[in-house]
Amino acid sequence: MWRTQHSAQSTNRRRRGNLLLASVPWLATILLTAASGQSAKLPRFQDHSVSSVYRGEVKPPDFGNPDQYDGTDLRCFGGDPAEYAKGHANFAGHFVIGRCTCGSGCHYLFMWDGLNGKFYRWFPFGPINVGPYGLGSTVPPVGYKGEQFRVDSTLLIVEGCIEGTCDCATRYYNWNGGEFKLILSRASRKPPRCSK
């Protein structure tokens, strides 16, 4: 009888241990998310809405002296700024986000204030690669969405790999009027070259 009772207690302990082990990944995710200060809920554009949207003509960006640029920068910032004034605000109420290519599948963002032309060249993530990676290989190619933003929101979503790295993620940033603050970063699939 003692063996039967001992065997039942051992079985119950194993079941409790298995339940605890099964909950560890879930529990670890919650603890890591809480420890990093990041929300488990994905940020949404409507959660970061602006109070008004400027619909008028935008001022051209103040690129400064074009002689300071070369290479791909010259192509994006060395031309006539008045050409950029033909656009409309597309981000955070009165800002304009543009893209500049840095090669095949690679680009970086720049931005200016459509009300006064103030130019913002550096984004915290720098150039990103969006692919597609792995074309012509036996595995399906990997591609990323790039950027998503709206004129009525301060949220910027960037999906891709930091140029020259295997740091691939979907990153959520909030523009606070002076800089982009990272809200959440979620790792993405990595290109085939990163799994070798």
Q: What does it look like?
A:
By secondary structure, the chain is of the alpha+beta class. The protein has 2 domains: 1-37; 38-195, no CATH class. Helices cover 23% and strands 25% of the residues. It is built from 3 helices and 8 strands. It has helices at 2-36, 71-77, 81-84, and strands at residues 95-103, 106-113, 119-120, 128-129, 146-149, 155-162, 168-175, 180-187. Strands 1, 2, 3, 4, 5, 6, 7 and 8 form an 8-stranded antiparallel sheet that branches. The radius of gyration is 24 Å and the shape is globular. Mean pLDDT is 81; it is low at 1-8 and 10-38.
List the helices and strands and how they pair.
Blueprint: H1 2-36, H2 71-77, H3 81-84, E1 95-103, E2 106-113, E3 119-120, E4 128-129, E5 146-149, E6 155-162, E7 168-175, E8 180-187
Antiparallel strand pairs: 1-2, 2-3, 2-4, 4-6, 5-6, 6-7, 7-8
**C-alpha-based Rg, rounded:** 24 Å
* Overall shape: globular
**Count of alpha/pi helices:** 3
Query: In angstroms, what separates the terminal alpha carbons?
Result: 57 Å
Largest sheet: 8 strands, antiparallel
Which labels suit this protein?
single chain, 196 residues, alpha+beta, 23% helix
Structure in a nutshell:
The chain is of the alpha+beta class and 196 residues long.
